[in-house]
Amino acid sequence: MRISAGLTLAASTAACLALFTGCSGTGSTTDTTPSNDAPSTAPVSSEPTGSTPMSSQAPSSGASQGAAETRDVFENPPAKSWNDALEAARKLFPGDPIEIELEPRDRGGLEYKIELVTDAAQFEVQFDAESLEKLASDEDQAGDDVAKARLKLIDTNDIVALEDAAKTARGKQEGTITSWKLEGKEDGSVKYEFDILPKGNSDDIEVSINAKDGSLIPGS
Q1: Which of 111, 106, 101, 107 is nearest to 131 (CA)?
Q2: Which residues have C-beta within 8 Å of that of residue 80, sequence separation ≥ 6?
Q3: Which residues contact 206 (CB under 8 A, 6 or more apart)?
């Protein structure tokens, strides 16, 4: 009986082990080890799907804005007139004018350049054409240059109006007047010089007008 019972217990134990082994071989198990064949996880983008980089969404300011148009000093004049600039210059230096000029500034805007002379010295001053803020000035003492400068004196009461001279200049050459100058010469003559930029051109054309009678100076 004891031998039979022992054999029976051993047989039962062997049957259970066989059953357990069979279940583990045919059942599915989960493998937690990553497979070498599995695709890698794609990196997560910091931008939403389908978004466009900012640099390609909008053009730069240079691309969206064209070059600034050249300023016509008569159609778009400065806040201060040449008479205002001359008066301001004479407050700094009690001389007579030999040159008055309106021209573009390197940093944008316009400036007046006034040259005055006395028997003893020559003076040059530059003003911002909108505010008459003094930008620069220079003074030379008596000498040969001053003596020659005295020959260039301009009597501002004995010249044709600037606007009339500009109209005559435009009759000779159409375009944008970018600057002008009233200048006395050693022979006693006085002339206006207008820099005119024709449409579609990049270079100015200079036109000169006799400031005493308003006529076009030949060769200009």
Answers
A1: 111
A2: 112, 127, 129, 130, 131, 132
A3: 193, 194, 195, 196, 220
CA–CA separation, 214 vs 163, rounded Å? 10
Rg of the chain on CA atoms, in Å: 46
Distance CA 169, CA 164 (A): 9
Cα–Cα distance, 67 to 59 (Å, whole number): 15
φ and ψ of 153, to 5 deg: -55, 140
Question: 117, 98 in Cβ contact below 8 A?
Answer: yes
List, for residues 127-169, the tens digit of each pLDDT value: 999 999 999 999 988 778 898 999 999 999 999 999 999 999 9
